[in-house]
Amino acid sequence: MANREAERAHFTVLPLANGAVYNLVLQQLLSFIEGLEPGDRLPSERALSEKFSVSRVSLREALRSLESMGRIDIRRNSGSFVREPLANPMTDYIRRVVPGGESSLNQLVSVRAALEDRVLLILGDAEHDYSHVHAHLLEVEDEVAEASPAGSLDVRFEALLARLTNNRLLIEFQRTTHELWIDTWGGCGRAPGDRRALLTEHWGILDAVRAGDTVLARERMAAHVDRTAV
Fold it and tell me: The whole model's pTM is what?
């Protein structure tokens, strides 16, 4: 086991831009949406940035994290809408029984790698429409072009792939893992990779999936997520 761990690549760990501000606004947004209903539209980015006294850059990163957690949907040119306003009970339970922080990161990597791999195996069993996933990556390209490289906790791509499986239990386990992923890395003020590098890897995974090459897709996903965190 030790030799196998030594052979695994390490994440390129980068500091989150304005990490303390990001964590604060994320917690404020989580509290805010708990008072809303599924389908409710959030105020505009400008209104939210003024409400929480933060820059729109920090606000957008927190909103991306909320979408990665499955708590909101961000619709281009339409706004952000509540998906799951209440806290995830599975996440709260795991936080109580498993030590958090850096000590749990490698355990979290193993769980996440297994879930993302299973998603690809299920997708490989039938044809699917990946146009929505493709459109998402095009939007991310626009976002990346407007920003400097920085650490990213954006896992919306993987969440979109999981939704295509129609396996509700798998989706919920992934949502729980993604929330823990964002919470744990964000709490450390760091992220496993920058947005541009992650986007390139996401395109590679999607290309393999759309070509029906499940073996290559799984290899690329493993290279993307199954790395040593600390």
Answer: 0.90
